[in-house]
Amino acid sequence: MVKQILFFLSLFFIVACGDEKEPEKKIVKEPTKGELIVKQNCKVCHAQGLNGAPIIGNKKMWGPRLVQGEKTLVTHAINGYELMPAKGGNTELTDDEIALAVKYFISKVE
Ligand code: HEC
């Protein structure tokens, strides 16, 4: 009887410990929120440079725009600017989400 209890107890501990180790196995790098927003709303134009949209990570194209400062870039992205539609055409996006997307663009310029 005692042996049986010990057996079940040890089984319980093995299972409990096994569960705890589970999250360690998944080391998947989650994309940032800004990256996701860009992927879903901005890449259509900013991946290839449609209509002259500055291409993600292209220093030459972003350089003259970056000097305006992040605040101006965010304002332009929110309100629209030349051929850049307001909020990339998705009015569901909040101003904060646009700011995150612009931050992602800036982080990609080396
Ligand atoms: C329909 C195509 C299109 C989509 C979608 C789009 N853009 Fe643009 N974007 C443009 C074009 C074209 C320009 C260049 C405008 C110009 O200077 O003539 C631009 C320029 C910009 C600029 C630079 C503005 C400046 O002041 O120089 C920012 C910042 C920007 N886009 C952010 C975004 C963000 C953030 C998204 C997604 C939420 C987005 N864009 C989606 C076409 C697009």
Write a structural description.
The chain has a single domain, classed as Cytochrome c-like domain (Cytochrome Bc1 Complex, Chain D, domain 2). 63% of the residues lie in helices and 0% in strands. The protein has helices spanning 2-25, 33-41, 43-46, 59-66, 70-79, 95-108. The chain is elongated. The mean pLDDT is 87. Heme C binds at residues 41-42, 44-46, 50-54, 65, 68, 73, 76-77, 81-85, 87-89, 93, 98, 101-102, 105. Heme C (HEC) binds next to α3, α5 and α6.
Helices and strands in order:
Elements: H1 2-25, H2 33-41, H3 43-46, H4 59-66, H5 70-79, H6 95-108
Bound molecules: heme C (HEC).
Short overview:
This protein has 110 residues and is an all-alpha fold.
For CATH, the homologous superfamily is named as Cytochrome c-like domain
* Strand runs, count: 0
Radius of gyration over C-alpha positions, nearest whole angstrom:
24 Å
Question: Which topology does CATH recognise?
Answer: Cytochrome Bc1 Complex, Chain D, domain 2
Kindly state the mean pLDDT as a whole number?
A: 87
Please state the overall shape, judged from the principal axes of the Cα atoms.
elongated
Number of domains: 1
Write down the oligomeric state: single chain
Separation, N- and C-terminal Cα atoms: 68 Å
Number of helices: 6
CATH class: Mainly Alpha
Give the structural class: mainly alpha
Largest sheet, strands/sense/barrel: none
Uncertain segments are none
Which short descriptors sum up this protein?
Cytochrome Bc1 Complex, Chain D, domain 2; mainly alpha; single chain; 63% helix; elongated; binds heme C; 110 residues
